[in-house]
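Posting for a labmate who doesn't have an account.
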Amino acid sequence: MSAKASPLILALGWIALPLLAQEVTQVSPPAAKPAEKAAFEFHDGDKVVLLGNTVFEREQRFGSLEPRLALALGDTKVSMRNLAWSADTVFGHARSYFGPPEEGLQRLTGHLELLKPSVVMLCYGSELAFEKLGGLPDFLTGYRNLLELIRKHAPGARIIIVSPPPLETLPPPLPDQTDANKSLSSFRDALRKFALSQNTYFIDLFELMGGVPKPGVIVKPLTENGVHYTREGYDKLSTKLVEGLGLAIPTVAPAELDPIRREVLAKDELFFNRFRPQNETYLFGFRKHEQGQNAKEIPMFDPLIDQADGKIQAAKAALLAGKKQL
């Protein structure tokens, strides 16, 4: 018999090849799913400091974030201090008062050394929405310097970087925010890479809050003016922030949160007066020769703030205990 294959055998071989390929495909294991992002790990006794501009500073008006985070952490107890400053930048412009930005960073240094945070959550960069990303290189340099400052004066602090949330287009005469949101989307992409390079935890609040909105006027706004969030806006923003940390908030009615929220608002007011007294120029500045003797009263806020922390934890424990009994 000839060693050369006959045409019939060759034809049968060509028919069998697709069948074999199909059989191999069927028995191949399914492709592995991408690994889910690990939850941020909080430790009992953590002190969380919020740093940023208006997005974070205005949160203390509503007390939305801390109650939700407290419930999501269950028996783990953490405290929160809001060091955010409206219109501030990574360079320290707003918190510098009348001096250069360096003065603002010096003030921040003092606050970090006082508080000794173990977790710092930052939200900066909203201004990049209107600068068409022209200032992005300088911004990232400033952000890197700010992180170095935090790590120097709060050694061991774990850092969370949060992207700014989207803006809303409201009826005229308020502006259309379409282009600004496109800039924020591109900025978010750059910030994600930066956060990874700095070995920090990243929360994409821009996408969690809906990403680039559809063109046109927002039907049910969560902001007062397209930029500043309302109480309902902060309730959603806070919920998404906690989800971005990889945590789950127990199901509670809004009214059930009110006892914790009230204690948080009281604590935040005490802390605001502690670190930003209205007459600081007279207490510590160039007019301290007039009322500087009253500066000794400012540290007296500290035990009151600690007591307020205890009331927050007690209100949380009462709510969780009630849930367990149901």
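Reply:
Got it, the structure tokens are right above this. The longest strand covers residues 47-52.
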